[in-house]
Design brief:
Rossmann fold, five-stranded parallel β-sheet, single chain, globular, 16% strand, 363 residues, six-stranded parallel β-sheet, 13 helices, Polysaccharide pyruvyl transferase domain-containing protein, Polysacch_pyruvyl_Trfase, alpha/beta
């Protein structure tokens, strides 16, 4: 009997290259491990009154309390208030929950997702919660809900060691399985050349990325401006390619393009082409998790900057990559980091461990 797999969070069509890569990586692993399975990506309906956060928060608190009281009737009632009808759960015996970056204290999706996993378990589905960064801060309610639901699931994994320690502190025992993007493997030289043949890339260039830490604000534009100033000071006349991995990145890039005359590479380009561009870069600098993962997969030096959770610290620790994750406010440390990359450029990956993924656990 083949598995009927409900897959969410479905990020196949995401603007974000990391979302695209992880969903494609998970699909590849499912096809390799369970070749006869029915794999169904589910699109979550938008929240009701999506722009009015206070209404959402009201129903989320009710849902959280229903989960903690093990009150299934009110879990379903409050899920319905958040646009998840009971028909959503029908027709599946297996759940592949792709947590990605949704399991953090400021996420607008976390409580609804936990309610969905709760109901799938109550219906007897095998639930795998995997490929996730978990950063719950000091929010006791969210910690309690995550602990409750994740103690119910059949398989629990996180994608980096910082998240593993966080869940261990809650009394859970997640496996450590690297980000699903690693399942895609590195691109060959021939693939890189084919994917970049229309871009006319310079022989050497600096690839710069944004960060989930940055916002559409003057402050964030100033932080990126300071980074670019230091890059230009150190790398002199080497051209900059700005890899816009999200809408915020594109906003910041457009604000600074005329000053620095860089090329912007972003949507609608896909993750494989982004990886190919990174494979040709001299160095990657920024706070986007997956462009740095792509750099590691292709053996390209990267200088990591912080994101909105501890995900970048987790990436670096998992890889055993010999660079510190810098704050966006550490502009006085940027030059030293550039110098370190150049000193150990040819040894950066000597002791690093780039993961290889072949299987996935869904039963």
């Amino acid at each position: 009997m083949s598995l009927r797999i409900a897959y969410f969070v479905n990020s196949f069509k995401s603007v974000n290259w990391g979302g695209q890569a992880t969903s494609n990586g998970i699909k590849k692993l499912v096809e390799q491990t369970y070749p006869n399975a029915e794999f169904t990506p589910l699109n979550l309906p938008p929240f009701p009154l999506n722009k009015i956060r206070i209404f959402r928060t009201f129903w989320e608190k009710k849902l959280a309390n229903a989960i903690l009281k093990d009150d299934r009737v009110n879990v379903l009632k409050n899920l319905n208030k958040l646009n998840i009808d009971k028909s959503f759960f029908e027709g599946f015996d297996t759940v592949c929950f792709n947590g990605e970056g949704a399991i953090h204290s400021k996420s607008g999706h976390l409580i609804r997702l936990m309610g969905m996993l709760y109901e799938f378990k109550k219906r007897g589905a095998f639930v795998s919660a995997l490929n996730q960064t978990v950063d719950l801060g000091n929010n006791k309610l969210i910690q309690d809900v995550v602990k409750k639901v994740y103690s119910m699931v059949d398989y629990l994994a996180v994608r980096e060691p910082v998240s593993q320690r966080e869940l261990q502190k809650l009394g859970l025992n997640p496996e450590l399985v690297a980000d699903a993007a690693y399942a895609l493997g590195s691109l060959s030289k021939e693939e890189v050349e084919e994917l970049t043949s229309d871009l006319n890339l310079p022989q050497k260039f600096v690839a710069v990325t944004g960060s989930s830490y940055l916002k559409r604000s003057r402050k964030s534009i100033k932080l990126m401006d300071k980074l670019l100033i230091e890059i230009q000071k150190f790398y002199k006349d080497m051209p900059i390619y700005f890899l816009a991995n999200a809408k915020t990145d594109m906003y910041i890039a457009k604000k600074l393009k005329s000053k620095y005359r860089f090329t912007i590479f972003g949507f609608p380009e896909k993750h494989d082409k982004a990886m190919a561009v990174i494979a040709k870069a001299y160095v990657v600098i920024g706070g986007r998790q997956h462009p740095n993962i792509f750099a590691a997969m292709q053996g390209i030096p990267f200088m990591p900057l912080k994101g909105n959770t501890h995900k970048m610290e987790g990436v670096v620790e998992l890889l055993k990559y010999p660079m510190d994750v810098l704050s966006w406010n550490d502009c006085d440390k940027f030059n030293d980091a550039f110098e370190k990359i150049e000193r150990i450029r040819h040894d950066l990956y000597d002791n690093a461990e780039v993961p290889i993924l072949k299987t996935i656990c869904l039963k």
